[in-house]
Design a protein that fits this description.
Helix content: 40-55%
Structural class: alpha/beta
CATH architecture of the largest domain: 4-Layer Sandwich
CATH class of the largest domain: Alpha Beta
Shape: globular
Number of strands: 21
CATH topology of the largest domain: Metallo-beta-lactamase, Chain A
Radius of gyration: 30 Å
Strand content: 5-15%
CATH superfamily of the largest domain: Ribonuclease Z/Hydroxyacylglutathione hydrolase-like
Length: 846
Amino acid sequence: MRDPLILPLLAIAAGIVAGKLFAFTTHEAGWVIFASFFLAAIPCDRRLRFVSIGLALFFIGIFAEAWHRLGAPPEIDASSRETVTLEGCVVEPSVLSPDREQFTLELDREARARVSLSLREGETPPRLEYGQHVEIDARVRRPHNYNNPGSFDYAAYLARQKIYWTATMAAGSRARILAGRCGFRFMAMVFALRVAALDRIERLYENDAYATGMMEATLIGETSRLEKIWTENFRRTGTFHALVISGVHVTMLAGVLLFALRICAVPEIAALAVTAVGAWLYALVSGFSAPVVRAAGGFTLYMVARFSFRRGRVMNLLAAVAIVYLLVDPGAIFDASFQLSFLCVAAIGALAVPLIEMTSGGLAFGTRAIQEAAVDPHLDARIAQFRVELRLFAETISLWLHFPLSWSQVFVAFISRVAIFAFEMALVSTVIQIGLALPMIEYFHRVSFSGLTANLFIVPLLNAVVPLGFLAIVTGFRPLAAVAGLLLRWSAKLADWHASVEPNWRVPDPPVWLALGFVIALITLASFARHRVWRWPALALVVSSFALLASHLWPPLLEPGILELTAIDVGQGDSLLVVFPEGQTMVIDGGGVLQFGRIRRRSNLDTGEDVVSPYLWNRRIARIDVLVATHAHEDHSGGIGALIENFHPRELWTGASPLPRVLERAARFHVPVIERRAAPPFQFSGATIEILSPPSDYGLHSPGNNDSLAFRIAYGSRSFLLTGDMEKPMEARLLGQPLKSDVLKVGHHGSKTSTTQPFLDLVSPSIAIISAGFENSFGHPHKDVIGRLNIQHTAVFRTDLNGLVTIRTDGRRIWSDTMTQHGISPWWTGEHSLNRSFSWALSETW
């Protein structure tokens, strides 16, 4: 076998997944490993020995997963609203951004808190260093996920870093430095290098927030100053991998260092060893991310191979690094960064290299000294023929333009090398785009076709930024920094242009069978890439399955004849999905992040893009029929813009005083805007909608909760009342109307300003849904509102406690599901689709 370490990697990876699914113990795995190796050691049939070793490797993966499995999280005896005194060791030094300071504090062995301090304008607190023993006063809370299918498990992501709390210090407070040092001296040196590099970048790009933030992210992996809008077009064009810390950074830096050492007459092995040490040091300074560790590990193994006079193979090196990495951190196999990093190199090694070998392989070598015809008989026939054609072409140019033949030959050879390089880059870019298509769709719901050309120009520019940027950091030479900054801006302009000519192509989740089929097609192509007969059918299979993935021909996961209301967990905000009996969809509000006072920097979290859209794509919804912006407050309309761009709704309904930027986004994407006011009922997709508020005579004024578009949806003998943030005055105006409804979406997140007793008596709901943030600072829902609902014997569902809440009716019966009843299954289990949710046991039936 060409790459013998691939099968052990697959066995260990399969064991890690099995351990995650079935929760084996270390004892169970250990006994099987012992028994398997014992069988393998006994002289027996070769096939039995092979199976025994494979079984042992499989259970080694299970053992590693069980050994590193996170136990019960540690506890702090304090509520989220209580200020407590914390004492610990600074294990990640302060990072200062324009509006906050952030650092990580280790409170106990492997129990950490991520601490943040809001800064007043112009305030610059003293930076904390690694290893300082400090004491702070802060409010502590556990990280909380958005509990929707398809959501990112943020709490587990932090737990893998041993971070179990977020701590918020009061504005103006300070950390008190205590006597003594903690941590490790080596890590103190590493973080000192990191802080020094960040300080140098800030001085080199003083008063240039864009260059500072982008350079810190690109060179050091520090994203605290990075604005999401700066990187959006890199994501859209599939070139974001060249911007963030990746293996390419290590390759570029290692190449420059190795070249410098060889120029200085350092022996090859010694130069490789020094470069490998430098690669690992950079991995530590830049945050020890999976792509950098993979590249540093691969470079180290390459050095070992050279020392042993062995030829290194890309796939074998990659498999060796992956085995070590997964045994140390088995949870990385479920991490997007690890998957994308290793799959990228695997696509190049298993697909791009064989394709290059059968197309342009060796032709670049054939362009050397083409005038020396005596070399041709010693070369491969294909390369020799290529050299003959180049000489003939050079003679033609020489005769046509009356150039000296030697000039024409040099020109033709140069142009040929450029063309071969461009072809190979385009082929590699295409292979990477196709090879990473499934995780890109699953995690980011993107397929980029402009990336095929964008990578040809942007990647070389950003590759040049890396060594120039580090030379500027080391030397402090401002002209070098200026050149690196200029290249960075040119790459951004190229990304902007490519994004402008490519539609925002977003792809919902594919069916599980298609995802598995695509993976099998890729493996088949990798296995037969060098086979003359079978490689073309395998390539056709990959291309056709990729086309099916990208085109998304599959209908949404909806149930006909059912009226569905789903409250999506968006934290302290509102976003509702309504599915009508005849299949049309309506999304009411898009959530958002509330920010008060003078906003120096908008949150990088876009609830519409990062929370609501993934849930809709999880349901395979590619287009919305009606998008509703109830009113202009950020916690309702902040995510609307992303929903307009991602789902191109056929209509946008608004209440009074909609958010101006929502109207601008609708105009940009040619979405008709309909302002709704109180009106008689009308039929819509098998149900009846009655607009209740705002009244037809409602005057325009500064945006407020009573601008909310409120309406009632009836289907058969059942009805849902959706109130937005409507408060007491508007509720009072509706008294006397027939508002009886089975389901009430409680107004204003359960605030005491809404859901008055007379209004509740009139509606008399059986079910109430409250959308509120977990442990929010507003105290929503208010205890009085909960008390009134309990007196009414109304079943209360809350997104802060229950996660996503779904109510369905067939016009007679009503039933409910909540996310906390069932949990979030990762995509690779195939259990995240709505097909599963329809098989859930009914929690309540009325």
